[in-house]
Amino acid sequence: MTSDDRPASPPLTERQEARRRRILHASAQLAGRGGFDAVQMREVAEAAGVALGTLYRYFPSKIHLLVATMQDQLQHLHTTLRKRPPAGENSAERVAETLMRAFRALQREPQLADAMVRALTFADRSVSPEVDTVSRLTTAIILDAMGLEHPTPQQLSAVRVIEHTWHSALITWLSGRASIAQVKIDIETVCRLIDLTAPDAPVAGRPVAAAPTASAAPEGRGTA
To answer: Which of 51, 59, 186, 222 could crosslink 64 through cysteines, CB 3.0-4.6 Å?
Structure first.
């Protein structure tokens, strides 16, 4: 059975949801202290106060668990951003501010960030639903910053490129190959795509009327 054929899980009861929250909290705590290698399923189960078999019923593998942890972190960020939205003057500025706020949140816990990014990198097809949820959350965060409810296909394409750049910038920073200053420049640069995909933006190949220039000859006067 592929991940696409997986039957939908029934909604969690209040008790089950509380147990799931404890598991995710334990995962984040262990990753925050020791990174990817510190997240061992037995240790997570002990820290969360659940049986190991119970943990595996919620999360079939460590990769599933860490991707779900990233999903949980993004949901928390999304809630925070809705309470305190970015204050940029245009969409590009607001999205850049939003992504840098997300980046700085991860910067405060680099071991946790590294563990979650590694899990996303290692995820195979069995983790596709969880990875897709992370992507949808990231898209929702960007669209909220843009103030869009019904983006055009071109705008969605720009959002995907922005997501890829943000993810890549996070990886290069975690590996020590990029500074925070360089990450900020890259994020601000890619966010300019938003202006290019606005409905009133000029389309490639479409002639644009030239504005009159100061050197234009006055009407009715011949040129030299």
So the answer is: 59
